[in-house]
Amino acid sequence: MTRIGLIVNPIAGMGGRVGLKGTDGIVERARELGATPVAAERTARALVRLERDLVSQKHKVGFELIAAAREMGGDLALGREFAVDVLPGRNGATSAADTRAASRELARREVDLILFAGGDGTGSDIHEIVGDRLPILGIPTGVKMHSAVFATSPENAGEVAAAFVLAGASARLREAEVVDVDEEAAREGRIETRLYGAARVPEDRLRMQSAKARSAPTDEAALDAVCRSLAVGMDPRRIYVLGPGTTTRRVLEHLGLPKTLLGIDAVRAGSLVGSDLGERELLALLEGQAATLVLGVVGGQGALLGRGNQQLSPAVLRRIGLENVEVIAGLGKLAVLDPPWLRVDTGDLQLDAELAGYRRVHVAPRREVIFRVAA
Protein backbone atom coordinates (compact mmCIF):
# COMPACT_ATOMS: atom_id res chain seq x y z
CA MET A 1 0.00 0.00 0.00
CA THR A 2 1.37 3.38 -1.09
CA ARG A 3 0.07 6.42 0.75
CA ILE A 4 0.21 10.00 -0.49
CA GLY A 5 -0.50 12.97 1.74
CA LEU A 6 -2.32 15.98 0.26
CA ILE A 7 -2.01 19.57 1.51
CA VAL A 8 -3.68 22.51 -0.26
CA ASN A 9 -2.96 26.15 0.53
CA PRO A 10 -6.41 27.58 -0.29
CA ILE A 11 -5.20 31.15 -0.83
CA ALA A 12 -2.09 30.33 -2.89
CA GLY A 13 -1.87 32.25 -6.16
CA MET A 14 -4.63 34.76 -5.36
CA GLY A 15 -2.25 37.71 -5.63
CA GLY A 16 -1.05 36.83 -9.14
CA ARG A 17 -3.63 38.37 -11.45
CA VAL A 18 -3.93 41.51 -9.35
CA GLY A 19 -0.17 42.10 -9.45
CA LEU A 20 0.68 41.57 -5.77
CA LYS A 21 3.74 39.34 -6.40
CA GLY A 22 2.36 36.85 -3.87
CA THR A 23 -0.34 36.44 -1.22
CA ASP A 24 1.68 35.97 1.97
CA GLY A 25 0.08 38.11 4.68
CA ILE A 26 -2.01 40.26 2.29
CA VAL A 27 -4.90 38.01 1.30
CA GLU A 28 -7.49 40.65 2.29
CA ARG A 29 -5.76 43.18 0.05
CA ALA A 30 -5.89 40.64 -2.79
CA ARG A 31 -9.64 40.18 -2.25
CA GLU A 32 -10.18 43.95 -2.23
CA LEU A 33 -8.54 44.09 -5.65
CA GLY A 34 -10.89 41.40 -6.96
CA ALA A 35 -8.69 38.32 -6.59
CA THR A 36 -10.40 34.94 -6.49
CA PRO A 37 -9.02 31.58 -5.25
CA VAL A 38 -7.31 29.37 -7.82
CA ALA A 39 -5.85 26.57 -5.69
CA ALA A 40 -8.92 24.34 -5.55
CA GLU A 41 -9.41 24.29 -9.33
CA ARG A 42 -5.75 23.56 -10.04
CA THR A 43 -5.62 20.85 -7.37
CA ALA A 44 -8.73 19.23 -8.83
CA ARG A 45 -7.03 19.10 -12.23
CA ALA A 46 -4.08 17.25 -10.68
CA LEU A 47 -6.35 14.82 -8.84
CA VAL A 48 -8.25 14.01 -12.03
CA ARG A 49 -5.00 12.86 -13.66
CA LEU A 50 -3.93 10.96 -10.54
CA GLU A 51 -7.28 9.21 -10.44
CA ARG A 52 -7.26 8.46 -14.15
CA ASP A 53 -3.83 6.85 -14.10
CA LEU A 54 -4.34 4.88 -10.89
CA VAL A 55 -7.88 3.64 -11.49
CA SER A 56 -6.79 2.15 -14.82
CA GLN A 57 -4.13 0.18 -12.90
CA LYS A 58 -6.05 -0.46 -9.67
CA HIS A 59 -5.64 -4.25 -9.95
CA LYS A 60 -1.86 -3.72 -9.76
CA VAL A 61 -1.47 -1.31 -6.86
CA GLY A 62 -2.85 -0.48 -3.43
CA PHE A 63 -3.23 3.25 -2.83
CA GLU A 64 -4.59 5.64 -0.19
CA LEU A 65 -4.74 9.43 -0.18
CA ILE A 66 -4.52 11.08 3.24
CA ALA A 67 -5.74 14.67 2.92
CA ALA A 68 -5.60 17.67 5.21
CA ALA A 69 -8.98 18.83 6.50
CA ARG A 70 -11.66 20.61 4.52
CA GLU A 71 -10.47 23.19 2.00
CA MET A 72 -6.87 22.18 2.67
CA GLY A 73 -7.49 18.96 0.71
CA GLY A 74 -10.30 16.87 2.18
CA ASP A 75 -13.12 18.60 0.29
CA LEU A 76 -11.35 17.93 -3.02
CA ALA A 77 -10.30 14.34 -2.23
CA LEU A 78 -13.58 12.87 -1.04
CA GLY A 79 -15.63 11.06 -3.66
CA ARG A 80 -12.66 9.90 -5.71
CA GLU A 81 -12.30 6.35 -6.95
CA PHE A 82 -9.56 5.51 -4.47
CA ALA A 83 -9.34 5.23 -0.71
CA VAL A 84 -9.32 8.59 1.10
CA ASP A 85 -8.69 9.46 4.74
CA VAL A 86 -9.14 13.05 5.93
CA LEU A 87 -7.18 14.50 8.83
CA PRO A 88 -9.10 16.29 11.58
CA GLY A 89 -8.93 20.07 11.44
CA ARG A 90 -10.53 23.28 12.60
CA ASN A 91 -12.99 25.56 10.81
CA GLY A 92 -12.02 29.03 9.64
CA ALA A 93 -9.20 30.69 7.75
CA THR A 94 -6.00 28.70 7.36
CA SER A 95 -2.40 29.80 7.79
CA ALA A 96 1.17 28.59 7.43
CA ALA A 97 0.79 27.07 10.91
CA ASP A 98 -1.95 24.79 9.57
CA THR A 99 0.31 23.72 6.70
CA ARG A 100 3.07 22.86 9.14
CA ALA A 101 0.65 21.00 11.44
CA ALA A 102 -0.69 18.91 8.54
CA SER A 103 2.88 18.16 7.42
CA ARG A 104 3.77 17.03 10.92
CA GLU A 105 0.78 14.68 11.08
CA LEU A 106 1.43 13.23 7.62
CA ALA A 107 5.03 12.57 8.62
CA ARG A 108 3.80 10.86 11.78
CA ARG A 109 1.58 8.64 9.65
CA GLU A 110 4.60 7.80 7.48
CA VAL A 111 3.12 8.68 4.10
CA ASP A 112 5.35 7.90 1.13
CA LEU A 113 4.97 11.30 -0.58
CA ILE A 114 3.45 14.69 0.23
CA LEU A 115 1.59 16.22 -2.71
CA PHE A 116 0.93 19.90 -2.07
CA ALA A 117 -0.73 22.78 -3.87
CA GLY A 118 0.81 26.20 -3.37
CA GLY A 119 3.88 28.23 -4.18
CA ASP A 120 7.38 28.62 -2.80
CA GLY A 121 6.09 29.71 0.60
CA THR A 122 3.99 26.58 1.01
CA GLY A 123 6.89 24.43 -0.13
CA SER A 124 9.26 25.99 2.40
CA ASP A 125 6.68 25.54 5.21
CA ILE A 126 6.42 21.82 4.43
CA HIS A 127 10.18 21.46 4.06
CA GLU A 128 10.64 23.08 7.48
CA ILE A 129 8.81 20.09 9.00
CA VAL A 130 9.83 17.11 6.86
CA GLY A 131 13.21 18.19 5.47
CA ASP A 132 14.48 15.49 3.13
CA ARG A 133 12.95 12.65 5.17
CA LEU A 134 9.81 12.53 2.98
CA PRO A 135 9.60 13.16 -0.77
CA ILE A 136 7.42 16.11 -1.76
CA LEU A 137 5.80 17.17 -5.04
CA GLY A 138 4.24 20.56 -5.79
CA ILE A 139 1.13 21.29 -7.81
CA PRO A 140 2.02 24.74 -9.22
CA THR A 141 -0.57 27.05 -7.69
CA GLY A 142 1.25 30.05 -6.25
CA VAL A 143 2.59 33.27 -7.70
CA LYS A 144 6.24 32.51 -6.86
CA MET A 145 7.42 29.08 -7.97
CA HIS A 146 11.20 29.26 -8.23
CA SER A 147 11.82 26.01 -6.34
CA ALA A 148 12.58 22.81 -8.21
CA VAL A 149 9.92 20.82 -6.32
CA PHE A 150 7.05 21.67 -8.69
CA ALA A 151 5.66 19.87 -11.68
CA THR A 152 5.33 22.06 -14.76
CA SER A 153 1.49 21.96 -14.67
CA PRO A 154 -1.30 20.58 -12.46
CA GLU A 155 -1.88 17.74 -14.92
CA ASN A 156 1.79 16.80 -14.86
CA ALA A 157 1.76 16.86 -11.06
CA GLY A 158 -1.05 14.29 -11.05
CA GLU A 159 0.75 12.12 -13.58
CA VAL A 160 4.07 12.27 -11.70
CA ALA A 161 2.30 11.33 -8.45
CA ALA A 162 0.60 8.39 -10.17
CA ALA A 163 3.88 7.21 -11.67
CA PHE A 164 5.44 7.37 -8.20
CA VAL A 165 2.68 5.13 -6.82
CA LEU A 166 2.88 2.66 -9.70
CA ALA A 167 6.67 2.41 -9.38
CA GLY A 168 6.42 1.48 -5.71
CA ALA A 169 9.76 0.72 -4.09
CA SER A 170 11.56 1.28 -7.39
CA ALA A 171 10.46 4.93 -7.67
CA ARG A 172 13.47 7.13 -8.43
CA LEU A 173 14.05 10.37 -6.52
CA ARG A 174 16.39 13.34 -6.89
CA GLU A 175 17.38 16.31 -4.78
CA ALA A 176 15.66 19.62 -5.52
CA GLU A 177 16.26 23.14 -4.21
CA VAL A 178 13.65 24.70 -1.93
CA VAL A 179 13.80 28.49 -2.22
CA ASP A 180 11.52 31.45 -1.63
CA VAL A 181 11.56 35.07 -2.76
CA ASP A 182 10.95 37.81 -0.19
CA GLU A 183 7.59 39.30 -1.24
CA GLU A 184 8.16 42.71 0.36
CA ALA A 185 11.44 43.07 -1.54
CA ALA A 186 9.71 41.90 -4.73
CA ARG A 187 7.07 44.59 -4.38
CA GLU A 188 9.90 47.13 -4.17
CA GLY A 189 11.53 45.76 -7.34
CA ARG A 190 14.29 43.76 -5.65
CA ILE A 191 14.88 40.02 -5.95
CA GLU A 192 16.04 38.53 -2.67
CA THR A 193 15.98 34.72 -2.68
CA ARG A 194 16.58 32.51 0.31
CA LEU A 195 17.70 28.90 -0.04
CA TYR A 196 15.90 26.77 2.57
CA GLY A 197 17.57 23.50 1.69
CA ALA A 198 17.15 20.44 -0.47
CA ALA A 199 14.09 18.21 -0.69
CA ARG A 200 13.61 14.88 -2.38
CA VAL A 201 11.22 14.82 -5.35
CA PRO A 202 10.24 12.22 -7.95
CA GLU A 203 12.73 12.14 -10.80
CA ASP A 204 10.96 13.14 -14.02
CA ARG A 205 12.97 15.34 -16.36
CA LEU A 206 10.08 16.17 -18.67
CA ARG A 207 7.28 16.86 -16.19
CA MET A 208 9.18 18.48 -13.30
CA GLN A 209 10.52 22.02 -13.51
CA SER A 210 14.07 23.07 -12.78
CA ALA A 211 15.04 25.72 -10.28
CA LYS A 212 15.16 29.30 -11.54
CA ALA A 213 18.71 30.11 -12.62
CA ARG A 214 20.68 33.18 -13.62
CA SER A 215 21.65 33.70 -17.24
CA ALA A 216 25.13 33.09 -18.52
CA PRO A 217 26.88 36.42 -19.19
CA THR A 218 28.39 35.36 -22.50
CA ASP A 219 25.66 36.82 -24.74
CA GLU A 220 25.17 40.18 -22.99
CA ALA A 221 26.11 42.27 -26.03
CA ALA A 222 23.73 40.44 -28.37
CA LEU A 223 20.90 40.55 -25.84
CA ASP A 224 21.37 44.26 -25.24
CA ALA A 225 21.45 44.90 -28.97
CA VAL A 226 18.19 43.07 -29.64
CA CYS A 227 16.49 44.94 -26.79
CA ARG A 228 17.73 48.24 -28.27
CA SER A 229 16.48 47.18 -31.71
CA LEU A 230 13.02 46.41 -30.35
CA ALA A 231 12.85 49.72 -28.49
CA VAL A 232 13.88 51.72 -31.57
CA GLY A 233 11.47 49.84 -33.82
CA MET A 234 8.32 50.27 -31.72
CA ASP A 235 5.26 51.34 -33.71
CA PRO A 236 3.95 54.53 -32.01
CA ARG A 237 0.37 53.50 -32.80
CA ARG A 238 0.60 50.30 -30.73
CA ILE A 239 0.68 49.60 -27.01
CA TYR A 240 3.64 47.47 -25.99
CA VAL A 241 3.02 45.36 -22.88
CA LEU A 242 6.27 44.22 -21.26
CA GLY A 243 6.42 41.23 -18.95
CA PRO A 244 8.55 41.06 -15.80
CA GLY A 245 12.28 40.47 -15.64
CA THR A 246 15.66 41.95 -16.40
CA THR A 247 15.45 41.24 -20.14
CA THR A 248 12.35 43.37 -20.70
CA ARG A 249 13.79 46.01 -18.36
CA ARG A 250 16.58 46.52 -20.91
CA VAL A 251 13.99 47.48 -23.52
CA LEU A 252 12.63 50.29 -21.38
CA GLU A 253 16.12 51.40 -20.38
CA HIS A 254 16.81 52.06 -24.07
CA LEU A 255 13.72 54.29 -24.08
CA GLY A 256 14.92 56.09 -20.95
CA LEU A 257 11.94 54.75 -18.99
CA PRO A 258 11.72 52.99 -15.59
CA LYS A 259 10.65 49.35 -15.46
CA THR A 260 8.83 47.50 -12.70
CA LEU A 261 11.23 44.59 -12.35
CA LEU A 262 8.64 42.00 -11.28
CA GLY A 263 5.57 43.70 -12.73
CA ILE A 264 3.82 44.33 -16.04
CA ASP A 265 4.33 47.74 -17.68
CA ALA A 266 2.96 49.28 -20.88
CA VAL A 267 4.41 51.79 -23.35
CA ARG A 268 3.08 53.72 -26.34
CA ALA A 269 4.89 56.29 -28.47
CA GLY A 270 7.89 56.29 -26.17
CA SER A 271 5.93 57.00 -22.98
CA LEU A 272 4.75 54.85 -20.10
CA VAL A 273 0.97 54.40 -20.20
CA GLY A 274 0.80 51.92 -17.34
CA SER A 275 3.07 50.63 -14.59
CA ASP A 276 2.84 47.48 -12.43
CA LEU A 277 -0.50 46.59 -13.99
CA GLY A 278 -2.89 43.90 -12.84
CA GLU A 279 -5.33 41.98 -15.03
CA ARG A 280 -8.16 44.49 -14.57
CA GLU A 281 -5.98 47.48 -15.52
CA LEU A 282 -4.55 45.66 -18.53
CA LEU A 283 -7.97 44.79 -19.89
CA ALA A 284 -9.11 48.40 -19.55
CA LEU A 285 -5.94 49.77 -21.17
CA LEU A 286 -6.10 47.37 -24.11
CA GLU A 287 -9.77 47.85 -24.93
CA GLY A 288 -9.97 48.54 -28.68
CA GLN A 289 -6.19 49.03 -28.97
CA ALA A 290 -3.59 47.31 -31.14
CA ALA A 291 -0.98 45.77 -28.85
CA THR A 292 2.20 43.69 -28.72
CA LEU A 293 3.32 41.61 -25.76
CA VAL A 294 7.07 41.36 -25.09
CA LEU A 295 8.17 38.44 -22.90
CA GLY A 296 11.43 37.18 -21.51
CA VAL A 297 12.20 33.58 -20.51
CA VAL A 298 12.64 32.40 -16.90
CA GLY A 299 16.19 31.09 -16.67
CA GLY A 300 16.55 27.39 -15.87
CA GLN A 301 12.81 26.76 -16.20
CA GLY A 302 12.04 28.04 -19.69
CA ALA A 303 8.73 29.47 -18.46
CA LEU A 304 7.00 32.00 -20.69
CA LEU A 305 3.61 32.32 -19.02
CA GLY A 306 2.26 31.22 -15.66
CA ARG A 307 5.33 31.86 -13.48
CA GLY A 308 5.31 35.31 -11.88
CA ASN A 309 3.27 36.93 -14.68
CA GLN A 310 -0.26 35.72 -13.92
CA GLN A 311 -1.49 39.28 -14.59
CA LEU A 312 -1.25 38.17 -18.23
CA SER A 313 -4.44 36.16 -17.84
CA PRO A 314 -6.14 34.24 -20.65
CA ALA A 315 -8.47 37.22 -21.18
CA VAL A 316 -5.52 39.61 -21.50
CA LEU A 317 -3.65 37.29 -23.85
CA ARG A 318 -6.66 36.90 -26.11
CA ARG A 319 -7.21 40.65 -26.18
CA ILE A 320 -3.59 41.18 -27.27
CA GLY A 321 -3.72 38.27 -29.73
CA LEU A 322 -1.41 35.28 -29.69
CA GLU A 323 0.07 36.37 -33.01
CA ASN A 324 1.28 39.57 -31.32
CA VAL A 325 3.59 37.94 -28.76
CA GLU A 326 7.32 38.61 -29.10
CA VAL A 327 9.88 36.61 -27.08
CA ILE A 328 13.41 37.87 -26.28
CA ALA A 329 16.11 35.80 -24.61
CA GLY A 330 19.86 35.41 -24.46
CA LEU A 331 21.13 32.46 -26.47
CA GLY A 332 23.04 31.19 -23.43
CA LYS A 333 19.83 31.05 -21.39
CA LEU A 334 18.15 28.96 -24.08
CA ALA A 335 21.13 26.67 -24.60
CA VAL A 336 21.06 25.31 -21.03
CA LEU A 337 17.34 24.49 -20.88
CA ASP A 338 16.77 20.79 -20.23
CA PRO A 339 14.53 19.71 -21.86
CA PRO A 340 15.00 22.38 -24.55
CA TRP A 341 11.42 23.67 -24.40
CA LEU A 342 9.59 26.82 -23.43
CA ARG A 343 6.67 26.31 -21.03
CA VAL A 344 3.20 27.85 -20.73
CA ASP A 345 0.73 27.32 -17.89
CA THR A 346 -1.93 30.03 -18.21
CA GLY A 347 -4.67 28.20 -16.31
CA ASP A 348 -6.70 27.78 -19.52
CA LEU A 349 -6.06 24.39 -21.11
CA GLN A 350 -7.45 25.43 -24.49
CA LEU A 351 -5.26 28.53 -24.57
CA ASP A 352 -2.21 26.49 -23.54
CA ALA A 353 -2.91 24.15 -26.46
CA GLU A 354 -3.12 27.14 -28.84
CA LEU A 355 0.18 28.51 -27.53
CA ALA A 356 1.92 25.14 -27.87
CA GLY A 357 3.95 24.42 -30.96
CA TYR A 358 6.94 26.43 -32.15
CA ARG A 359 7.78 30.08 -31.65
CA ARG A 360 10.53 32.43 -32.79
CA VAL A 361 12.78 33.81 -30.06
CA HIS A 362 14.81 36.96 -30.74
CA VAL A 363 18.40 36.44 -29.57
CA ALA A 364 20.19 39.22 -31.51
CA PRO A 365 19.29 41.86 -34.11
CA ARG A 366 18.01 40.07 -37.23
CA ARG A 367 18.71 36.69 -35.58
CA GLU A 368 16.05 34.32 -34.29
CA VAL A 369 15.93 30.74 -33.11
CA ILE A 370 12.93 28.45 -33.26
CA PHE A 371 11.95 26.89 -29.95
CA ARG A 372 9.29 24.39 -29.04
CA VAL A 373 6.55 25.63 -26.69
CA ALA A 374 4.97 22.97 -24.47
CA ALA A 375 1.97 23.15 -22.14
Topology:
Blueprint: E1 2-8, H1 27-32, H2 39-55, E2 63-67, H3 74-77, E3 83-86, H4 96-108, E4 113-118, H5 120-130, E5 136-140, H6 154-167, E6 173-181, H7 183-187, E7 193-202, H8 220-232, E8 239-242, H9 246-253, E9 265-268, E10 271-274, H10 279-286, E11 291-295, E12 303-305, H11 314-320, E13 325-328, H12 331-335, E14 341-344, H13 349-355, E15 357-364, E16 367-374
Parallel strand pairs: 1-2, 1-4, 2-3, 4-5, 8-11, 11-13, 12-14, 13-15, 14-16
Antiparallel strand pairs: 6-7, 8-9, 9-10, 15-16
Walk me through the structure.
With 375 residues, this protein is α/β, with parallel strands linked by helices. The protein folds into two domains: 2-202, Rossmann fold (3-Layer(aba) Sandwich); 217-374, no CATH class. It is 31% helix and 24% strand. It has helices spanning 27-32, 39-55, 74-77, 96-108, 120-130, 154-167, 183-187, 220-232, 246-253, 279-286, 314-320, 331-335, 349-355, and strands spanning 2-8, 63-67, 83-86, 113-118, 136-140, 173-181, 193-202, 239-242, 265-268, 271-274, 291-295, 303-305, 325-328, 341-344, 357-364, 367-374. A nine-stranded mixed β-sheet has the order 10-9-8-11-13-15-16-14-12, with helices on both faces. Strands 3-2-1-4-5 form a five-stranded parallel β-sheet, sandwiched between helices. The protein has a two-stranded antiparallel ribbon with strand order 6-7. Helix 5 links the parallel strand 4 (113-118) and strand 5 (136-140).
